[in-house]
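User: Can you help me understand a structure? I only have the sequence.
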Amino acid sequence: MSNTATKKRRSNFALLNREVIKPGYCTSCGGCEAVCPVFVISIDQLVPKLIGGCISCGACVDVCLRYKQRVEQAAVEEESLGEIIELYKGRSKLEDIKDNSQNGGVVTTLLLTAMRKEKIDGALVTTHISDLLGPVPMLALNELDIRKASKSKYTLNPVLIKLPAIKLSHKEKVACVGLPCHTETLSNAIEMKNLGADFRVDYKIGLFCMSSYNPSTFRNIISQNLGLDAESLYKTDCARGKFFFVGPDGTTDIKIKECSEAKAEGCKYCLDFSAEFADISVGNVGVGDDSNIILIRTEAGKALFDFALKENVLDVEKVEKDKWEESLAAAKKLSTIKKKGAKSLPPIESPK
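Assistant: Let's start by predicting it. Here is the structure, written out as tokens:
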């Protein structure tokens, strides 16, 4: 039997389980479930499980960012925020969006404008049903869906499990909004031409992220320490070393370090703060609470952003290159902290 055939046979869910899932490196991004051609991988309690007969196609291994991270052992540029071609600061001009957004409402405005003008016919987003600490992946098919997905959620969400819904819904022009782990895994899927994602997903919009948290543990912490009911919260935020929870009785906060027990294990190995694999990255670092900082990374991202500018829905200012260092100082600081603090992933030692 050829070496190629042997390698293909061994590149399967068992390999992914042994090298990524069991050791606790998994990010719960949902990519492995999404790309399985025979639908035998299922994210159960945020952990990928095999629920049928694996055909050893290797698709789940190919897209897994943690497996790739272990194989490549790439050098880390601690102060780098990835490729940037343009930089902006600002917010939405749409008052109803600003009033119901996390900060500047830029992401929601980009999606709404693109859908209204038929630049996209769907958007892969994170919404919620009962509370903001229980995020739910969704393929948004209309403006109402997009609006429901506004505001940040700080707990794990396998948003990529909805990738097959793009094809099943016969959508051809889709934007995907996700955290660094989602955008990197999606980039791997596009590179491998899985699910037709290489032509169906036109835009990857990434969100800055220091870490995600386990939903049940996080709920317990805020319930026991703060006496808060997660279902009563209508906004959560993270800034200046604290989590802020906004509910009917006002705003309550807790130090992030007091929530360390809830930090997702797989996030402890993450080296990406600013969603470096996205077309556009958006955050709220080094700007006011009602604003976003926007990193345009690719020509696709620039095309989407320029379209929104022409539609006059964004109140933003372009940051000239000689001001980048100053404007990105806070983001670079957090990115460096995250990269320096990340646990090292051991190289793959067992053979495929």
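Now, to help you interpret it: Residues 1-9 have pLDDT under 50 and may be disordered. Residues 222 and 298 are 39 Å apart (CA to CA). Let me know which part you'd like to focus on.
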